[in-house]
Design a protein that fits this description.
The complex is a heterodimer. Chain A has a single domain, classed as Orthogonal Bundle (ABC transporter involved in vitamin B12 uptake, BtuC), CATH 1.10.3470. Chain A is about 75% helix and about 5% strand. Chain A has eleven helices and four strands, in the order ααααβββααααβααα. In chain A, strands 1-4 form a two-stranded antiparallel sheet. Chain A is globular, with a radius of gyration of 20 Å. Chain B is an alpha/beta fold. Chain B has two domains: about 20-160 and about 295-360, Response regulator (Rossmann fold); about 160-290 and about 370-390, Rossmann fold (3-Layer(aba) Sandwich), CATH 3.40.50.2300. Chain B has twelve helices and 16 strands. Chain B has helices spanning about 1-20, 55-75, 95-105, 120-130, 160-175, 190-205, 225-230, 245-255, 270-275, 300-310, 320-335, 340-350, and strands at about 25, 40-45, 75, 80-90, 110-115, 135-140, 155, 180-185, 210-215, 235-240, 260-265, 285-290, 350-355, 360, 370-380, 380-390. In chain B, strands 1, 2, 3, 4, 5, 6 and 7 form a seven-stranded mixed beta sheet that branches. A seven-stranded mixed beta sheet of chain B has the order 9-8-10-11-12-15-16, with helices on one face. A two-stranded antiparallel ribbon of chain B has the order 13-14. The longest helix of chain B is centred in the N-terminal third of the chain and has 21 residues, at about 55-75. Chain B is elongated. The chains are: A mainly alpha, B alpha/beta. At the A-B interface, helix 1, helix 4, strand 1, helix 9 and helix 10 of A face helix 1, helix 2, strand 9, helix 7 and helix 8 of B.
Chain lengths: ~300, ~400
């Protein structure tokens, strides 16, 4: 029983961590290239979930085959989020490219508030149930349990991250991204279209956010206009934990944060004899963050300039 | 490197700024009507944005409906025709924000306040209303502490958590025969308060509390806590908190393959809970102060009018907000004045036949003789199981 519970906590942590990792990649990619923290990223995740919900509902009402409906709604969410990511960069960040660093941070907050309130106006204040047309069966792993959706989350996250690494390290666009990250001026002199590369980075990150939004909604079965806020914050923490600007760091940070949270909340009460309880779940995660930043200010994997994208 | 750390530091501060900026206020459309002599401002506060916005909007709708009804009737106070104006504020379920909007309402010179929705916001805000002598009726704050501060200006139109927790605890231990109980709360004044009262009463009825776990009113993932509870094999799990947490919680509980009974308080007695938890909601117990809608004196009529007006079902507290406004207006009429100092004494004396019950307050401001009804989700609907404590007739 004790082993089963432990395995279950590990599964919980990996599932949660996969989602954090996907969202964290969006933060880290933008930071790697622009040195900017795109605080609207959590809201992009929310918009992705909302669009997927709307499209999925419409398709299911039109009796489209479940798998096709899921795929189409995911693609629709990715398309809308990519457009949104492009738009955010164009409107809120590009005009401030040479402004002091605080300025784009403030517009990021502004965009976040605008998106949240727009979503509230479009989709309302209600919680929407996310329809899952497939059977979400439970599988027993010894005494631990994992659902179809959770298996899908981990597999999709791994696949998407592998694809991202492939893009960054094996394609022309990826090479351009790495070049801009390393030295924008030199990259420009070498004929790299910086604006195009930055737009592409935002679109790529937003597509990941859409995937994450879909996965979170499918897992919890609930969509709400406020859902991006906390998720964005956690994912940002994960990015910093792993070393913001570093792709592998974001993945590692996400996974670690998921595990820390689930093991922390699951065991801290029993281990400390009830002195600390699961109310310290978030404190625990942030304490680890602070500790890492004290001893390794650039995060676990650091910000390896050649690696960041 | 220097620039790097300072921008990370700034970024960590962002959530604070975000919560502080996310304010929204909706002043009522107060059309200037030539005939009316006096405008009386009624303040209202509830979370209109954030995770509980759906419940806060429901509160605002109930309050607005009462004010529009009163204006349509053409109320006379002290021989003069008056017009009521709603000043609605958004407290974001945030205790800090609650004190800010409370000050806004005071500065707007409201004659009385309907709010706040949650105990965690109502209690800190009540000190500001008290210091400024403004009567406050909370439609839905149930924490015992709210009326236990010794303030003469605070009231509520709902039974409190010591009554609710007692009913739930006794039912769990005696009727359902739960011997080992796990308790989770969201660490808000409401969630913690009702969980404490539940624990007291369940233990007095012979049950044992084998786990006490916590979450927050912003959390969405509870698998870690639920897994830990699963290992202790309780007969029943009680949650003190609101539906944005309880719905995914019960869903995740069933997703972990746990079939234990799930019980919670009034914060989850909503259509939203059933809709979002889906099949996992089946069998959940929840309580709500008051009697079922169809047994309320004006319940059926109110439900029909609300749904016709807002084209959506009542979430939770709208009828209580409606009553709270009317109680306040009733006291103003009896006093012949909307001056807080003049109508406040009338609040203590009045007996008001409201939509939800016959309302009268005791010396602390609590509802006299409030009933508690226990509900269970059966076939996808909240069905009353039993009503305890006599409704005052």
């Amino acid at each position: 029983m004790i082993v089963d519970i432990f395995v279950q906590q590990i599964i919980n942590g990996i599932v949660q961590g996969s989602v954090y990792a996907l969202v964290a990649l969006g933060y880290t990619m933008v930071y790697g290239i622009l040195g900017l923290i795109n605080f609207a990223h959590g809201e992009v995740v929310m918009v992705g979930a909302m669009v997927a919900l709307t499209v999925l509902q419409a398709l299911l009402a039109a009796a489209v085959a479940p798998l096709l409906a899921i795929l189409l709604s995911l693609l629709a969410a990715m398309a809308v989020c990519m457009a949104l990511g492009y738009g955010i960069e164009r409107v809120a960040y590009r005009p401030l490219r040479n402004a002091p660093r605080l300025a784009p941070l403030i517009t990021a907050i502004g965009v976040s508030i605008v998106l949240q309130n727009l979503a509230m106006m479009i989709w309302g204040r209600e919680y929407h149930a996310f329809p899952l047309p497939l059977d979400n069966a439970l599988h027993a792993l010894g005494g631990a349990i994992i659902t179809n959706v959770q298996i899908a989350i981990v597999l999709v996250a791994v696949a998407v991250m592998a694809l991202l690494l492939l893009i960054v390290h094996r394609t022309r666009l990826g090479r351009a991204m790495r070049a801009v990250a390393e030295n924008p001026a030199a990259a420009m002199l070498m004929g790299v279209d910086i604006n195009r590369v930055i737009s592409a980075t935002f679109m790529l990150g937003s597509a990941l956010a859409a995937v994450a939004g879909f996965m979170v909604s499918a897992n919890y079965g609930i969509v709400h206009y406020y859902m991006g806020f906390m998720l964005g914050l956690k994912a940002f923490t994960a990015a910093v934990l792993g070393g913001i600007g570093n792709l592998r760091g974001a993945m590692l940070g996400g996974l670690l944060l998921g595990l820390i949270e689930s093991l922390g909340a699951g065991y801290i009460g029993d281990l400390s004899g009830g002195f600390f309880g699961s109310n310290y779940q978030d404190v625990f995660a942030f304490m680890v963050l602070i500790a890492v930043l004290i001893f390794r200010p650039s995060g676990l994997l650091g910000e390896r300039v050649a690696e960041r994208a | 490197m220097k620039i790097y750390s300072s921008s990370v530091l700034a970024a960590l501060l962002v959530p604070l700024i975000l919560t502080a900026c996310n304010k929204q206020s909706e002043p009522a459309a107060a059309e200037a009507s030539g005939g009316s002599d006096i405008t009386i401002k009624i303040g209202a506060a509830a979370p209109l944005t954030g995770p509980q916005a759906h419940l806060g909007k429901d509160n605002e709708n109930g309050t607005r409906m009462a004010i529009e009804d009163a204006n349509a009737k053409g109320i006379m106070i002290g021989g003069k025709k008056v017009r009521f104006e709603l000043v609605s504020e958004d407290d974001q379920v945030d205790p800090k924000m609650a004190t800010i909007v409370a000050q806004n309402l005071v500065d707007a010179k409201v004659n009385g306040v309907i709010g706040h929705m949650n105990s965690g916001t109502t209690i800190p805000a009540s000190r500001i209303y008290h210091d400024n002598g403004i009567p406050q009726i909370s439609p839905s704050a149930t924490a015992v502490a709210y009326t236990a501060q010794g303030y003469d200006n605070v009231f509520r139109v709902m039974a409190n958590d010591s009554q609710q927790g007692r009913v739930l605890g006794e039912f769990a231990a005696k009727k359902l025969g739960a011997k080992k109980i796990a308790v989770i709360d969201d660490r808000t004044a409401y969630g913690q308060g009702i969980a404490d009262e539940f624990v007291k009463s369940a233990e007095a009825s012979g049950a044992q509390i084998i786990a006490r776990e916590y979450t927050s009113d912003r959390a969405v993932d509870f698998t870690a806590v639920l897994t830990s509870i699963k290992g202790k094999q309780p007969d029943l799990i009680f949650f003190g908190g609101m539906d944005p947490q309880s719905a995914p919680m019960v869903k995740q509980l069933r997703g972990l393959g746990v079939k234990t009974q799930f019980m919670t308080g009034d914060g989850s007695y909503t259509p939203s809970f059933i809709q979002n938890a889906g099949a996992a909601s089946e069998g959940t117990y929840a309580s709500l102060p008051g009697v079922p809608f169809d047994q309320m004196p004006g319940g059926k009529d109110f439900v029909a009018r609300y749904e016709a007006k807002y084209k959506q079902p009542i979430q939770l507290y709208a009828p209580y907000c409606y009553d709270a406004v009317n109680v306040m207006i009733d006291a103003m009429q009896k006093a012949g004045s909307a001056e807080p100092a003049k109508y406040l004494p009338e609040m203590r004396k009045l007996v008001h036949d409201g939509v939800t019950a016959r309302i009268a307050f005791d010396e602390k401001g609590d509802l006299k003789g409030g009933a508690i009804t226990l509900y269970q989700v059966r076939e996808g609907k909240w069905q009353p199981v039993q009503t305890m404590g006599a409704a005052q007739q």
